[in-house]
Amino acid sequence: MANTATAVHTKGAVHEFRGMRTIEHWFQVPLDHSDASADGEQLTIFAREYTSTEHSAEEALDLPWLLFLQGGPGGRGNRSTSLSGWMKAAARSFRILMLDQRGTGLSQPVDRHSLPLRGDATQQAEYLEHFRADSIVADAELIREALGSGPWTVFGQSYGGFCALSYLSFAPQGLEQVLIAGGLAPLAGPADQVYRATFERVAARNEEYFRWYPEDRSVVNRIARHLEQVPECLPDGSPLTVGRFQMVGSFLGGNTRVHGLHHLLEDAFVPTPVGERLSDSFLEQVRGIVTRAPNPLYAVMHESIYAQRGATDWAAWRILEEFPEFHPSAQEPLLTGEMVYPWYFDHDPALVPLADVAEILAAKDNWGPLYDVVQLARNEVPVAAAVYRDDIYVDYGLSMETAAAVRGLRTWVTADFHHDGISDDGEGIFTRLLGMVRGTAADEG
What we know:
alpha/beta; Rossmann fold; nine-stranded mixed sheet
């Protein structure tokens, strides 16, 4: 990744609380990294540094940097109020940099309010072409140099792992070691293969869930039939359709969170003078699950994270035809996972104004590469990846194909966790991956 640009760096506030020290960092980077001219448009990127107060402020300056790349797309860096989980383990020997990837958090966020500043839908789409993993990696390299860091450690969760693979492809000189949790992306092929595998794994997870809670099968059916007959609205005024209700299947991607689905469903109905209706408690919880208000880029850019050259053309919606058990009209509809459908942009108030730009991006057929398979095949950076055998979001089979294509990548394959494993045992997972790249921990679990 040839880039002669530099990032202007400004430090912000410093705070200490609960054994943790935070420092705010602001950077100016090019919108388009292929245009490093001084008069090119700039973006403001925000990141927050976390260190443990067990190290004095002076001692912390000598710690090596660890960059955390969050899941997404469209997810801002974690806002932590204490050093726990993987951050507790990392803070023993690193300065953690929690990046708000461009378009998220405080890094010039993109939403229905700000995006129209770019112009019409075509101009908005042209702007968003610069918000994929390759641009995030280029930002990270300029930030690393602005901080005066040598090659640093990168820890990528989910989509953050996809970004880490792009980093290994285009700027390996900036990396000392890479840790990936649930984030080995397919290096080639259409998005169709991703969603075909996703539907298969989500179907299996539905089956597993309804074995645990057989009574919930009838509850899901009952809610679906109710929604076909009785108009229900979420607290934001948007309609709750069967398809939107199926999105509560996001619980299925969790290790312990999956059991929270049962608690959601048990609150579904309440008696009223006009018959049974969905309860306010249930509707409020569902609103929090189905809205993309906190991260609209997740819906707008989601399929583009798999796009290389050809158009995605709403891959999940097309592949759905192969899995009629997921269709809202099915007699016993299954709950869905992370798929994004075009009708999301008809119902979600945060997405309705973005429908045209989403259509343009879905039809775009000249995306650039996200990975360099030749570079990955000759990789020299130590890499360790946790691969979750039953992950419904990042397919095990596709992950292992990628692992085999990256020279020297060590995998820890485990069925002990699902996609959100670092939320359950972040300290253990991080420690093991770090030990693997350092040669002190075994691969297979």
